[in-house]
Amino acid sequence: MLSNCSCSCSCSLLYSYASHFLDKPRIPLRPHLRVSPLVAQKTPFLGWSLILPGKDGVFRDNPRKGYIPFYPVRAAIKRRKELPLDNVIQRDKKLKLVLKIRKILVSQPDRTMSLRELGKYRRDLGLTKKRRFIALLKKFPAVFEIVEEGVYSLKFRLTEEAERLYLEELRVRNEMEDMLVLKLRKLLMMSLEKRILIEKIAHLKTDFGLPLEFRDTICHRYPQYFRVVATARGPALELTHWDPELAVSAAELSEEETRARELEEKDLIIDRPVKFNRVKLPKGLNLARGEMRRICKFRDMPYISPYSDFSALRPGAPEKEKHACGVVHEILSLTVEKRTLVDHLTHFREEFRFSQQLRGMLIRHPDLFYVSLKGERDSVILREAYRNSHLIEKDRLLLIKESSVHLLLFLGSRGGMLLEEVMMEQREPTIMRVKVV
C-alpha cells in the first residue's frame, strides 16, 4: 500500500522494472583474489551499469547491455486537504473505543460483564497503558454503569438510555432487512461472475448496515435471490435471480431526476443519452487547463452502467476506468454513510477487475470522490452525498448513530476532552473495527 503523504504534496507513482541489480550474483569457481605479479588488474567501476537521466531529465536507453529502462510516472492532480470532509472521519475516530467496548459487552448473555473479564480484551481495544478499567468506564457515565457485587467483584453494564438505543437499533435493523437484501443483490449483480466470497462481503457489513451474524441469517433466508455455495477459497454468495429493475444505478436515477426537474422548469422535451456534464470541483482546487480538459472529456464519455457486462473491457482503457468509477460510485451509494475504507474496495479487485492503482484512480477524479488520510486507514467519500461535513440524506440507522453521539458526549465539552485523552492511549492498528450505529 502506498504510504500516507502530506496533503500539500503531489501524489506520485513510480513504475520500476526488474533489472540486473536484482539478479543473483554469480560465484566464480576459481579464487577471485589472484593477482598477476606483473600487471595488477583494475577494479571495475561499480557505477558502470547505472541508468542516468539525460539533460532533459528523461531516462533514455543506454547502449550498455543487460538492463531495462524505466520511466517515472507522475500524477497530474494534487490531493487537496478538505477539513469539512476530514471531520467526518474524525468524528468516528473519537467514538471507536466506546463502540468496541459496547460490542464486547452486548455479546455477553445478560449484557453484564466483570472488569476482570474486560481486561482480557485490552489488546483488542488497542490500549497499551496498564490503567484501571474502572477509571476508563467512569469517563463515560452516560453509556456505562458500574455495578458493585462484593469488595473484589466489580461489573459494568449499559445505562438505561444506552440500552434503549441498542434495542432500538436491533429493531430498526430487523425492519430494514428487505433493504439489506436489496443491497446484497445489487452488489452481486455488479460482480463479474455474480458470485462473491462471503469473507469479502464481511468487509462491507458495517458500511452496508448488515448485522454481525449476516452469514447465518440473511445469506440463508432468501434462496430466491441468492444462495451460499462452496468454493475452493471458502463459502461464497451466488446470485440466483437477475432483476432488470434493480440494474439501475444511483447515478442514473439522479441524472433522470435532474433532467425531469429541468424539463419541468423549461417545459421542454429533449431526447438525449444519459451524460454527466456538470463538473463540480472542490473549492480552491486549481487545475491546469489540460487536466481540466481531461476531466471534462472523461465526464463526456458515454456512461457505462456498473451492472453491464464488462468482461470485454481492456484493462487500462478509458472505458474500463469509466466502468470502475461507476462501480465505486454505486458501492458508496449503497453504504449507510456514503463512504468506506479504500482497503475495503481493494478486496474486490478480482470481482470488479479494479486496477492495482485503485487509490490513484480515486484521486484522479476529485469531482466524484474525496480520499481522506484521517484515521488509521485512508477513506473514500462520495462527494455529492455531502454538504460540507453533513450527509444530505440520512437513513434510520444513521439517526440512531447520531443519538449515540449525543449520548456519548452527555457531559458536554468536558466529556469531549476526556474522550480525547483516552484515544491518545490507543495504538495504531486494532483487530476489531466497529462502526458507530
Short synopsis of the structure:
This protein has 17 helices and 13 strands. With 437 residues, the protein is an alpha+beta fold. The model is unreliable at 1-41, 61-75 and 411-437 (pLDDT under 50).
Question: What does this 3D model show about the protein?
Answer:
This protein is of the alpha+beta class and 437 residues long. Helix content is 38%, strand content 11%. It has 17 helices and 13 strands. The chain has a 3-stranded antiparallel sheet. Helix 1 (83-106) packs across helix 17. The longest helix is centred in the first third of the chain and has 24 residues, at 83-106. The chain is globular, with a radius of gyration of 28 Å. It starts with 11 loop residues before the first strand and ends in a 14-residue tail after the last helix. The model is unreliable at 1-41, 61-75 and 411-437 (pLDDT under 50).
